Amino acid sequence: MSGVFELLEKIRTKPGMYIGRSSVSDLFMFLVGYEYGRGESGVDPTEEEDDFYGEFQPWLQKKFGIKTVSSWAKIIMLFCHDEKAGFEKFFQLLDEFKQRDNTLDENGEKVMETDSIINEKIAGGMGIN
């Protein structure tokens, strides 16, 4: 089963197939249902999912200097003229969120420190710098 970042990439390219239309509010509701469904099925969240579900909203609030109990979708809509613009803005913000930490790869997955150490040793042993 894929993680939330992989699913979001699928939704980004084909929103109609997953949520019906390019809408940040519909995307929010879909992700709430996705998280709930995985939990009810006994699927433990990945580190990436914990990061997204636990940190995206606080990161967004800090970025915009907003303190609210409203959802991240409503925060985004404060800056967008319609749902489609909000959908597009979400993915821009998601890309920025994933890049906030150099320990995430392009798919938003945690890169293990041991992986980078192993890669450095392999590259160093091959004379690659």
Q: What do these coordinates show?
A:
The chain is an all-alpha fold and 129 residues long. Helices cover 67% and strands 0% of the residues. It contains seven helices and no strands. It has helices at 4-13, 15-19, 24-40, 47-64, 72-77, 83-99, 113-125. The longest helix has 18 residues, at 47-64. The mean pLDDT is 85.
Key terms for this structure?
single chain; 129 residues; mainly alpha; 7 helices; globular
List how many beta strands DSSP finds. Answer: 0
What kind of sheet is the major sheet? none
Helix content: 55-70%
As a whole number of angstroms, the C-alpha radius of gyration is 17 Å
Summarize the helix and strand pattern as letters: HHHHHHH
Give the mean pLDDT.
85
Q: Beta-strand level of the residues, as a percent range?
A: under 5%
Uncertain ranges: none
Count of alpha and pi helical runs: 7
Alpha-carbon distance between the termini?
Answer: 36 Å
Helix/strand class? mainly alpha
Shape verdict? globular
